[in-house]
Design goal:
Pfam families: START. Keywords: Lipid-binding. GO terms for molecular function: cholesterol binding; cholesterol transfer activity. One of its GO terms (biological process) is cholesterol import. This protein has about 220 residues and is α+β, with helices and mostly antiparallel strands. It has a single domain, classed as Alpha-D-Glucose-1,6-Bisphosphate, Chain A, domain 4 (2-Layer Sandwich), CATH 3.30.530.20. Helices cover about 25% and strands about 35% of the residues. Strand 4 and strand 5 form a beta hairpin. The chain is globular and about 50 Å long. About 35% of the residues are buried. About 5% of the residues have low confidence.
Length: about 220
């Protein structure tokens, strides 16, 4: 297993990567394709997915052979409170239905840490529980915040888990100009689940995970 990298250059590189993803416009069809969970299940080639809580797009990842997913939706709350529920901390385990455990392994400063977490099995356990070790970084972005992460090859893998890998991922959260009590939440996720899995199962799991993420988050913020 690798040793921990120096946090400052890793945080800077991670932020720059996410800002680059964020600069690719929705309408640039050569980059982003709107994505439909139900159509994928029945193997139709065109993708159109508009879930009530979020819209999801995807494009081929530059990091691995899978996809970079983009999700976007409006959340009724202020930016700081939303990000506090997303980043590593006391809130995340309470509401995220996919996450089953989370431990902070190292803390570099208040907005920068290494965490280990596990996820539940998906699709009737076709996708077995996974474990991830991620470097996490939260920083300002425009009038809001960016919380982002990348997996590290660090620490021993727990028994009964497959070690997954998150390539650069992150969530941009900025207040709406005409309604500051609402925020636009945009996520970029590219997760390599690893193991022997059919690509259709991975794609279906990703779409449902992103849709549930927004739904679960909104419910948590109302409590």
């Amino acid at each position: 297993m690798d040793s921990l990298p120096s946090p400052a250059p890793l945080a800077s590189k991670l932020r720059n990567t996410l800002v680059r993803y964020h600069s690719i416009g929705d309408g640039e069809s050569i980059f982003w394709t709107s994505y439909n969970c139900m159509q994928l299940i029945i193997n139709i080639v065109s993708y159109i997915f508009f879930q009530k809580d979020a819209t999801v797009w995807r494009k081929p990842s530059e990091e691995f052979s899978g996809y970079l997913y983009k999700a976007q939706g409006v959340v009724e709350d202020v930016t700081n409170r939303i990000v506090d529920h997303i980043r590593p901390g006391p809130y995340r385990l309470d509401w995220d239905s996919l996450m089953t455990s989370m431990d902070i392994m190292e803390t570099f400063e208040e907005n920068c840490c290494v965490m280990r977490y596990t996820t539940a099995g998906q699709l009737w356990n076709i996708i077995a529980p996974r474990e991830f070790v991620d470097f996490s970084y939260t920083t300002s972005y425009e009038d809001g915040l960016l919380t982002c992460g990348i997996s590290l090859d660090y620490g021993e893998v727990r028994p009964n888990f497959v070690r997954g890998f998150n390539h650069p991922c992150g969530w941009f959260c900025v207040p709406l100009k005409d309604s500051p009590s609402h925020s636009l939440l945009t996520g970029y996720i590219q997760t390599e689940l690893r193991g022997m899995l059919p690509q259709s199962a991975v794609d279906t799991a990703m779409s449902s995970t992103l849709a549930n993420f927004y739904s679960d988050l909104k419910k948590a913020l109302k409590t």
